[in-house]
Design a protein that fits this description.
This protein is mostly helical and 1421 residues long. Helix content is 57%, strand content 0%.
Length: 1421
């Protein structure tokens, strides 16, 4: 202290001492001299240290002089730099106390030094080293710490920080960076506080805009914050607290960048935000949408950062953030979903937490959110499949059925890319490929959807991702071979359908090309327009596509070059390479550089994409055959591909069989036919069958083009026809018929030896000859007319069917697998089929053979399958014969000449097979019925048979029946719309005309015994609603009034079958009342004036000759629930005006502006609520009958045996008389009795049992226990061959099946009716096809269908395959049926499962709005 005091005394003397050799420095010398002298002073101070007390005292006045304004404000920068260096050294030398005591002087000095630091910016300056020395000196000495005591310290520090952040650049080395950090960190760490201005000067460099401008300043701030994290954290927390919690945005200019700053600070050091993160949790719950959105965006980056551990460190914040996935604000949910992909990729451990929230968002009402869910999951999957779990992939799978095309497309394309990467290219190994093996099936299943956009996208995905068309031919066919071998059944059908649709479109374009060459005329214009319309239906947006296809037709007329190219493209011999060239040439020719967006060209590309053969040509078929041969020889790598060799061979032959149908010309090579000959000799029956079918499809020119193949093939075919397995024998006969010109000779060589060698002693060896003879009878009935009639009458009827040689096994089972069926039963089935095929070949009933055959078939049905009634047959054999007889009647009914002779009793007996006690019989019969109706071959009355399915105890059967009804009704409406010229056949096509048939069928139902029985009337109501629900889904063209008028008209007639039977007529009127009640309760337009009288079928009803019947419905006539109507009352009131007034259901009530009450029958339409007789009202006729004595009830309860009604009675003698004197049956087999009074000898056939004891095992043959899932389905090759001839029948007839375009809405199901009086208990009553009433499940079934079943039914309009469908049908019909089926349970676009919430979190699923197809059909008669 003494020394310092002495120094100050010296200073007061005012004498300045300069270093040796340095003269006075004043304004009187030149700048250069001043610089020279200052450099010497700098050198002196640089060499001094803090221990040089004498020198410090000596140069004190010089130190004070250098701090004068003369130097601090000197204009020359070199002078200022040297002075700054001196001052820095002075602070170092005189530390810890500076020689300057005035606060103002200290401020001036440090502001001066700060200004000099700007010189650091130019690293190439000659003085840079001095600037660096200045920085190093003040950083090392921490000179600025002196300013802590100054009032203006904040200003000094802030200026220093700003200067350093401003001058830092990429030219500075690490030392400069380090000294700056040291200098600034000392101020933060050693100071008492950090002002907001100082904090802003640091944080501003973290704002993205500044960060991008000066990366070095950002790095400097980042280094500073890391160094001073602990010290600066309270001030950062205070800043965010002021802005976030208190809303004081004025505290800093950075308030608007607060969320950017939080992210940067978190990335720099998470400890800086320890107290800030809880504030974010609060902000996530803000009422301000924009504020929540900003916080969500911030946290998405923080949680999703690659090395972030925020989710594990702050679980409450993570859970709060996850809650924002359900935010009410759409942009917030969208942001959360976008974040998911980063989170999945960077933090796989969080996938479990995200899964549940993504599931909800995948059903979000907003299309963009559902779309981004798909994008997020697919993006992560493409990076690494292990990042996503199966649940997430399933969300993508679900969205392939989204109601919005954009979402569906994203999901389908995403799955396709995943499949190609991990399955086709195998980038992640076999385990990953196995994990996503379902994708190929799912993508092909989408081909079942009605939307043409979906189908086109599936075709594109198949060509680009599943079997890339740009692969080399051998590799492409290998890929297709193993793909086909691993697809599931429905996917195979979809793929076959895809090829078939493309083939049909190819033929349509070829037809258009042929038309445009013809001279123009009116007929030409009509033909072209018709073909244009057909092609248009195969393109997206048919409205616009129609104009474009017309334009294309014009182009084809005018431009021969394009026409030639297109002809080459659709030619059967076009190769894949040719197709590629043609497509490029056509698009190049039609394209225009001046019009980059060309809708016409896009449509043409769609068309070319569908018709171009990019996969299959002659070379491809040859390569595919070689691949199959490799598998046969055992040299293929089947096991490496995960396919058993046997399965691969079968699939390869099936694939070739399908391609032989769509690309027959590609098979025309000797090498291909020789390989197929080798397949015929294989032991595997399936392989040989497929080879035979390929020959049939492709061998039309084999006889002339490949005679050496013919000479080898013919003996093989003849041998198989005589001694091969039944199915191979069938295909062998068809091959000979299709391939050889002198087929009559070949047929005779086969027929004669087989005909003579028939012997019932060896049943096993009888099956193949009967199969062969049956097909010969159908293909060449005239050639073998005489022998065939004798064969049928003597051998088939007398020897085979009328005798039971071997007693059947005693078992309670109603069905056994095919391999357990006795040879005798199989032979009898083939005998029945032979009879039917013979009749179908003859196609006339001149010899009354049709009547005789029908008598025989109904006798089999009447006897429960045991024709001789000797009791030798086992129950499974009887089931098989019942099915064979029922299907045989259906086959005969498809031929007009035989349909005319089927009596109503025979029709009703056949219909009851759909209620057979055996599940498999019901299943197979329903499938046969559906197929006949779909081809528009079975008359409309057979559609009414499905009404009986309402009582089936198995919900799957009810679901299937409803799907069949929906498809058939839609198909007929679509056909009427597209074929206006068939209006004269309206009564046989219009679906509404099924109602009279259904009423008549139910009135004659054997289970409907007591006219007024409440439970029986409930069954009738369920059956009627089963059909009316679908018919009345939409009131198109006033169809509700049309149906009502039909029901009213029936009540003006009598039963055509039993016109004089009062009880039957009473039943008929009662069923009409039930139907009327349904129409009234379910429609708001029933009271409109109905159309003029519809025509009723004359066979079923007499001419009107009596007044209307009184209402006999009684207690069941309570109105059904009318909730859930699909249309408003106003829209229902609207009708379509039509010129025809004969039976057109367009009502004049609309133009009159009033309701025509003259058509109302108050007794029918208004007597809905029933009062008890005690209230003084006269009970109706039906109520009186309902009050019959108990003796009468008992008599009525003795219900007749199934189908053995008096009118339908068929005696053995009748059958015997028709087939000749030599045939005979025991008279007792068809005895008649009074069925009202005698109980049945065994359970009624044609109805499943009513109830079964709970403890009874399912295998006891009881049918009431079939509420659970159906038994396993077995394939029955021989059972289902009735329709195997359809290929030949189809060849000469128009394909009348039309794919329905719209989906039907669903009306509410019928409520279970209540009893008339509360005192009357609903006692359990045995009813056909129904589980016991005591079961809760039975109560819930209501109209015969549970809600789950309704959902399944509504969701799918698939034509369900039965277990008994023969392989032949599976092969041919999947190629010939023009509309693809959809697998059961797959939801179509545009529908939502029943019971699902409509909007909040599940809007993305299909809603109940159905795609309406405006019906333009007329009800003209």
């Amino acid at each position: 202290m003494e020394t310092m005091a002495h120094s100050k005394n010296r200073a007061t003397d005012g004498k300045i001492t300069y270093p040796p050799g340095v003269k006075e420095i004043s304004d009187k010398i030149s700048k250069e001299e001043m610089v020279r002298r200052l450099k010497m002073v700098v050198k002196t101070f640089m060499d001094m240290d803090q221990d040089s007390e004498e020198e410090k005292e000596l140069y004190l006045n010089l130190a004070l002089h250098l701090a004068s304004d003369f130097f601090l404000k000197h204009p020359d920068k070199d002078v200022r730099l040297l002075v700054a260096c001196c001052l820095a050294d002075i602070f170092r030398i005189y530390a810890p106390e500076a020689p300057y005591t005035s606060p103002d002087k200290l401020k001036d000095i440090f502001m001066f030094i700060t200004r000099q630091l700007k010189g650091l910016e130019d690293t190439k300056s000659a003085q840079f080293n001095r600037y660096f020395y200045l920085l190093e000196n003040i950083a090392w000495v921490k000179s600025y710490n002196i300013c802590f005591e100054l009032e203006d310290s904040n200003e000094i520090f802030t200026q220093l920080y700003r200067t350093l952040f401003q001058v830092i650049n990429n030219g500075h080395n690490q030392k400069v960076h380090m000294h700056m950090v040291d200098l600034m960190s000392s101020i933060v760490c050693e100071g008492d506080s950090v002002s907001q201005e100082l904090l802003d000067s640091v944080l501003v460099n973290l704002v993205p805009a500044h960060k991008n401008l000066n990366k070095q300043a950002y790095d400097l701030a980042k280094a500073l914050l890391k160094r001073t994290a602990q010290a600066i954290e309270p001030y950062i927390t205070n800043f965010f607290n002021q802005v976030l919690m208190l809303g004081k945005t004025s505290v800093s200019d950075l308030s608007e960048h607060v969320f950017d700053l939080i992210l940067e600070l978190y990335n720099i050091d998470s400890h800086l935000l320890l107290s800030v993160l809880p504030q974010l949790e609060f902000k996530l719950k803000s009422n301000d949408n924009d504020e929540r959105l900003q916080v969500v965006k911030l946290l998405a980056k923080m949680f999703g950062a690659k090395d972030s551990e925020l989710a594990s460190q702050n679980k409450p914040l993570w859970q709060c953030y996850l809650g924002r996935f359900n935010d009410i604000h759409v942009p917030i949910r969208l942001e959360c979903v976008k974040f998911a992909s980063h989170c999945l990729m960077n933090h796989p451990d969080l996938a479990k937490d995200l899964t549940e929230y993504l599931k909800v968002r995948s059903h979000d009402p907003e299309e963009a959110i559902r779309h981004d869910v798909i994008v997020s999951i697919v993006t992560a999957s493409k990076k690494d499949l292990s990042l996503v779990n199966d649940h997430l992939l399933n969300f993508v799978r679900e969205r392939t059925l989204d109601k919005r095309w954009r979402v569906r497309k994203e999901a389908m394309m995403g799955l396709a890319q995943i499949y190609k990467k991990y399955s086709l290219q195998g980038e992640a190994g076999k385990e990953a490929a196995k994990q996503i093996a379902w994708i190929k099936d799912k993508l092909l299943h989408i081909y079942y959807q009605n939307s043409i956009d979906d189908r086109l996208l599936v075709e594109r995905i198949f060509a680009q991702y599943m079997v890339p068309h740009n692969l080399e031919t051998t590799e492409r066919m290998k890929c297709l071979y193993y793909l086909y071998a691993t697809l599931d059944t429905n996917a195979v059908k979809a793929l076959n359908e895809m090829w078939k649709c493309q083939n049909m479109l190819r033929h349509n374009v070829k037809d258009l090309l042929d038309l445009v060459k013809q001279p123009k005329s009116d007929s030409y214009n009509k033909a072209v327009f018709s073909k244009v319309m057909v092609i248009t239906r195969n393109l997206p947006d048919p409205g616009k596509a129609q104009d474009f296809v017309k334009k294309l037709a014009q182009v084809l007329e005018e431009d021969e070059k394009i026409r030639k190219q297109l002809e080459t493209l659709v030619s059967p011999s076009c190769s894949c390479k040719q197709a590629e060239v043609c497509v490029k040439d056509i698009t190049k020719k039609l394209g225009s550089p001046k019009q980059p967006s060309n809708p016409f060209l896009e449509m043409v590309k769609f068309l070319l994409e569908r018709i171009a053969p990019v996969h299959i040509d002659t070379e491809s078929i040859s390569a595919l055959i070689k691949q199959v041969n490799k598998s046969i020889e055992g040299t293929a790598d089947d096991e490496d591909e995960g396919v058993p060799t046997e399965q691969a061979i079968r699939a390869g032959l099936e694939l070739l069989k399908v391609l032989s149908f769509t690309h027959p010309v590609s098979f025309h090579s000797a090498e291909t036919f020789e390989s197929l000959l080798g397949c015929l000799k294989m032991e595997d029956e399936k392989v040989a069958e497929a080879a035979l079918q390929i020959f049939k499809n492709t061998g039309s020119k084999l006889e002339e083009s490949f005679p050496h193949i013919k000479s080898i093939l013919l003996p093989v075919l003849q041998h198989k026809a005589k001694k091969g397995p039944p199915r191979q024998a069938k295909y062998a006969i068809r091959c000979i018929h299709a391939m050889f010109s002198n087929r009559d000779t070949h047929f005779a060589q086969i027929f004669e030896p087989l005909h003579k060698s028939l012997d019932t002693e060896n049943m096993e060896q009888l099956i193949t000859p009967l199969t062969t003879l049956g097909h010969l009878a159908m293909l060449a009935p005239e050639q073998f007319a005489g022998p065939l009639k004798s064969l049928v009458a003597n051998f088939i009827v007398k020897d085979l069917l009328m005798n039971d040689r071997i007693p059947g096994k005693k078992t309670t089972k109603l069905w056994v697998p095919d391999d357990e069926v006795s040879p005798e039963t199989l032979a009898k089935i083939q005998g029945i089929k032979l009879m039917v095929r013979w009749l179908l070949g003859v196609k006339n009933n001149q010899s009354k053979s049709g009547n005789s055959t029908l008598r025989m078939l109904t006798a089999i049905l009447n006897s429960d399958g045991d024709l001789t009634e000797q009791g030798k047959m086992g129950k499974p054999d009887m089931s098989r014969l019942r099915l064979a007889a029922g299907c045989a009647v259906l086959r005969l009914a498809q031929e007009p000449c035989y349909h005319e002779i089927i009596t109503l009793e025979q029709y009703q007996l056949c219909a009851l097979v759909i209620n057979d006690e055996c599940y498999q019989v019901r299943q197979a019969f329903a499938q046969k019925l559906h197929k006949g109706l779909c081809r528009l071959r079975l008359p409309l009355e057979y559609l009414a048979v499905f009404a009986l399915c309402a009582k089936d105890p198995v919900k799957e059967r009810r679901a299937h029946a409803r799907q069949c009804l929906v498809k058939n009704i839609n198909l007929r409406r679509e056909y009427l719309k597209q074929h206006a010229a068939v209006s004269e056949k309206l009564i046989s096509l219009l679906p509404e005309y099924v109602v009279p048939y259904a009423i008549h069928l139910l009135a004659h139902d054997p289970d409907y015994v007591k006219v007024q029985d409440i439970e029986q009337l409930k069954d009738i109501k369920e059956a009627l609603w089963f059909i009316l629900e679908i018919l009345m889904a939409k009131n198109e063209n006033n169809s509700h009034a049309f149906i009502r008028k039909m029901v009213e008209n029936i009540k003006q007639t009598k039963d055509g079958q039993c016109p004089d039977d009062a009880k039957i007529n009473e039943k008929l009127y009662t069923v009409c009342d039930v139907a009327m009640n349904i129409v009234i309760s379910k429609s708001t337009t029933y009271s409109l004036e109905s159309p003029k009288d519809p025509v009723l079928p004359a066979r079923y009803f007499t001419q009107p000759d009596k007044p209307k019947a009184a209402n006999v419905l009684g207690a069941v006539n309570k109105p059904l629930s009318a909730t859930g109507k699909l249309q408003t009352k106003l829209s229902r009131m609207e009708t379509i005006s039509n010129a025809s007034s004969n039976s057109n259901p367009s009502s004049p009530g609309r133009s009159k502006g009033r309701l025509d009450t003259s058509e109302m029958d108050h007794s029918e339409n208004e007597d809905i609520s029933i009062k008890s007789p005690s209230e003084g009202e006269k009970p109706s006729r039906g109520r009186k009958r309902g009050a019959a004595s108990s003796q009468e009830d008992k008599a009525q309860e003795s219900k007749p045996k199934r189908g053995r009604k008096k009118a339908a009675n068929t005696s053995t003698d009748d059958t015997e008389e028709q087939w000749g004197e030599e045939s005979g049956m025991p008279e007792a087999s068809m005895e008649t009795e009074d069925e009202q009074n005698s109980p049945p000898k065994r359970g009624r056939r044609g109805r499943p049992p009513k109830s079964a004891p709970k403890d009874e095992a399912p295998n006891k043959g009881r049918r009431g226990r079939r509420k659970a899932a159906p038994p396993p389905e077995e394939e029955n090759d021989e059972e289902q061959e009735e329709e195997e001839e359809e290929e030949e029948e189809d060849a000469g007839s128009e394909n009348m099946e039309v794919k329905p375009k719209g989906r039907r809405g669903r009306k509410p199901r019928v409520e279970v009716l209540e009893a008339a009086s509360d005192t009357v208990e609903s006692t359990p009553q045995k009813r056909r096809g129904r589980p016991p009433k005591s079961q809760t499940a039975a109560r819930k079934s209501g109209g015969g269908r549970s809600r789950a079943t309704v959902s399944q039914e509504e969701d799918s309009e698939e034509e369900m395959e039965t277990s008994q469908q023969s392989e032949e049908e599976a092969e041919e019909e999947q190629l010939q049926d023009s509309s693809p089926k959809r697998p059961v349970g797959q939801r179509p676009v545009g529908q939502r499962p029943v019971g699902q919430r409509p909007v909040s979190t599940d809007e993305g699923l299909e809603d109940d709005q159905h795609c309406t197809v405006q019906q333009q059909m007329s009800y003209r008669l």
